[in-house]
């Protein structure tokens, strides 16, 4: 069975993963993948935080296994969903379609190339075709969104006021799961795009304490509309991949 696209879900995405679940073995570990059907499209649903633990924290997610599993089942396109804090006063509950990133992780393995050198180009890390389909769906529904740079931190702690003050000079939103996914997808020449849900103000943007509860509560109110956006965007993806993602490693090997 041909699978058209994979959706990577974060916190609160368990409702995405109902369906025919199978375990995909990879060189990096096993990954649970649920296959659903929508409007004649086959969609692979993967929850990043699912695993042996009740909730796998962001710094312990097996990113290489997840991206490899997606390639293993023949999927060429990935749409990632991420919950983020705003560093630029985006409205809570609005969306950001990412167009660039800053990777501030310290310990995550961010490449498949352990034994040879591949300098993959990241000039345009997010697939512009998938991103456009996401933005078209958001426009169609009259929803508030913007483009922006995603800053990824290690977690699992939230960031400090000083860190947010620094990061806000070069980024728009901050999260803990967007990297190294996008880099790993690029190395396997897969199309990858991300739609972020603004769940909270980043540290120092208000006087309030940041809690995990507020993130979960906001996501609970946006999951249904987010799924509608994803399905609509998938329905409008062109059959052929007419982007440079499929040639990402061309000329990159030493």
From TrEMBL:
Residues 40-229 form the Nucleoside phosphorylase domain. Keywords: Glycosyltransferase, Purine salvage, Transferase. The record marks 159, 212 as: Important for substrate specificity. Substrate binds at residues 176, 200-202. This is Probable S-methyl-5'-thioinosine phosphorylase. InterPro entries: MTAP (IPR010044), Nucleoside_phosphorylase_d (IPR000845), Nucleoside_phosphorylase_sf (IPR035994). PANTHER family: S-METHYL-5'-THIOADENOSINE PHOSPHORYLASE. Its EC number is 2.4.2.44. GO terms for cellular component: cytosol. Although this enzyme belongs to the family of MTA phosphorylases based on sequence homology, it has been shown that conserved amino acid substitutions in the substrate binding pocket convert the substrate specificity of this enzyme from 6-aminopurines to 6-oxopurines. It holds the Pfam family PNP_UDP_1. Belongs to the PNP/MTAP phosphorylase family. MTAP subfamily. GO terms for molecular function: S-methyl-5-thioadenosine phosphorylase activity. Phosphate binds at residues 48-49, 177. It catalyses: S-methyl-5'-thioinosine + phosphate = 5-(methylsulfanyl)-alpha-D-ribose 1-phosphate + hypoxanthine. GO terms for biological process: L-methionine salvage from methylthioadenosine; purine ribonucleoside salvage. The keyword Glycosyltransferase applies. Catalyzes the reversible phosphorylation of S-methyl-5'-thioinosine (MTI) to hypoxanthine and 5-methylthioribose-1-phosphate. Involved in the breakdown of S-methyl-5'-thioadenosine (MTA), a major by-product of polyamine biosynthesis. Catabolism of (MTA) occurs via deamination to MTI and phosphorolysis to hypoxanthine. Pathway: Purine metabolism; purine nucleoside salvage.
